[in-house]
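Board notes (copied after class):
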Amino acid sequence: MPGIRAPRPSLLTEPLASYCRQRLAEDPHLRPSALFKEVADLDFQGSRSTFYRELDRRVLVPAGRRETNSQEEDPQIPSEISRTLARRHERTPVLPQRVAPIAGETLSSYLARIARANHLTVTEVLAVLPTWFSTKTNNLDDRAQHHMLAPAATQALHELAHLIGTTPAGLTHALPAFGTDEGPVRATTACHRCTARLGIRQPVPVHLPIHHKVCTRHGIWLSDLGEPHLDVSICPEITAAQHRANRLLRRFTPQQLTLAHQTAVEAVPPWPASPAAVPHHWRYRLLALQTHNHHRGISTELDTYAHAARYPDAIELAAAVLPKHPHDPARSTGENSPDLRTAAPAAHGHFATQDSSPQVRATASGTTR
């Protein structure tokens, strides 16, 4: 209309907005600054302030965190602590019981397991460690590296290694609080069967790479934090899809794969294109998962079932629409969304060749008749 300024198109496209929504659901403590780095790798052309403004406009970040975007890098560090972060204990004891860390375990969880194994309280463990640990555990994001904490991180690492009688390299590799890996992660709990082999009965909160959805050793679907794990061994195609996702990471970044997977989930049709694909369709896989996990007392109304059931279809479709050249920004950011709708029927033609469980085949054949 003459005299009316046309609205500026949003730089945060719908696929990128869906990616941000999924990442914030997977990791509730994800900092907006870390999320901005991820979307920048996906060819987001806006500035940091533009990205924050888009998050506010789309209400993707809780109100309590939107107000502190400019101070999100600042942990709660009292002024008197900043002078004692590098304080060294001259006689740090060595605890009698060693505790092996779980890959990706949070620092608070690891300190609590150390205290429990040695019949101590967490306060008593923190009393013999530098105040770096007290400050770090008071903040929810283990991976945040504040400029006031970073100089004392190396010394704190050696103090903790001396306390439990292990090597600093092992702690650095397992604990994100000391690691240098900046790859995107998701908050979940470690596979309960893996931890049970170590004698751990309680859930262990961890940060895993965003593409890691299934424990391929035990066939366990690693749900989001606070949700129960699912036994997906009855559907081996779900574990096979995790192996395929790992192979795709040889050519694509985790952000590209996650964006393609999230867009493919929305494009997976609710019903198969042909009767031949019915036995392998995700709705019958959903029924098999609900029946198989019902004996564990897990409610059948969880959205986790649908996420696990769609996973093989979504990975198949994501692999079909990912660019032939991994550095093609147009395809990797999901701008060619029509390709997903075009590739969906073709991808379902491949699903009919996948293996399926006997229970799914029996259910499908009975329904078809």
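Comment from the instructor: The first helix runs from residue 14 to 26. The chain has 18 helices and five strands.
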